Amino acid sequence: MSKASFSPALFAFLRQLKANNDRDWFKANQAKFEDSVRTPALEFVRDMAPRLEAISPHFLASDKKVGGSLFRIHRDTRFSKDKTPYKTHTGIQFRHAEGKSAHAPCFYLHLEPGEVFVGAGIWHPDTATAKLIREAIVEDPKAWKRATQGKAFSKRFALQGDSLKRPPRGFDPEHPLLEDLKRKDFIAVAKLTQKDVTSGDVPKTFSALCETSTPLVEFLCRALELPF
């Protein structure tokens, strides 16, 4: 297993892309994108496959260029006022094998100039999925607290994401875990630096953080009756 790391060239390319976010520039720099972004990202995905298997056999590491663990660089601009065609970050998501979209239990790596982090959990679950998670929190609040307030977890991860302004319908507005029940995202984030991912064994660093976040991911899988 190689000890892959990302090159500073990845962040340099993303900075240049942010300043030149148009199709002509990207086409002229396609080879640079392949060399500095997509190729090392897919190598990272391949390196993660056996490590992910050791954490849980139910999370996928797919090195397909399209439709795999690496998110596409193209933005979906159909419903956005921002019509710039390209994302200015690199996202790599290892999601549950039974997840049909990005809104599934996952482990995630975000690479962006000035913002590098590991994410774990479920981002923007649909209404039915969010309801199941909230019901699981109410049914077993001690398990939720163990998953999100454990010493090792809390040392590296913090729960983030959007929340409802009001208590969710059908749930006790006086519940002691109301702030968690109001969550629209059930994700935790661990901050890294660019240096963390441009030196050393990045798959080892990432997989260690995945292991640290497993109490949360396992809780969410249990809430959705998914194997972990």
Order of helices and strands: HHHEEEHHHEHEHH
Radius of gyration: 18 Å
Give the CA-CA distance, first to last residue.
24 Å
| Portion of residues within helices | 40-55%
- From the 3D coordinates, which CATH architecture would you assign? 2-Layer Sandwich
Major beta sheet, strand line-up:
1-2-3-5-4
Instruction: Please state the average pLDDT score.
Output: 94
Q: How large is the count of helical segments?
A: 9
CATH topology: BirA Bifunctional Protein, domain 2
Any chance you could write out the topology, listing elements then pairs?
Blueprint (H helix, E strand, L loop, with lengths): L7 H12 L3 H6 L1 H26 L34 E6 L10 E7 L2 E8 L4 H13 L1 H9 L1 H6 L1 E3 L17 H4 L4 E7 L1 H5 L3 H22 L5
Antiparallel strand pairs: 1-2, 2-3, 3-5, 4-5
Helix pairs in contact: 1-3, 3-9, 4-5, 4-9, 5-9
Description:
Helix content is 45%, strand content 14%. It has helices spanning 8-19, 23-28, 30-55, 127-139, 141-149, 151-156, 178-181, 194-198, 202-223, and strands spanning 90-95, 106-112, 115-122, 158-160, 186-192. Strands 1-2-3-5-4 form a five-stranded antiparallel beta sheet. The model has no long low-confidence stretch (mean pLDDT 94).
Summarize the structure.
Helix content is 45%, strand content 14%. By secondary structure, the chain is of the alpha+beta class.
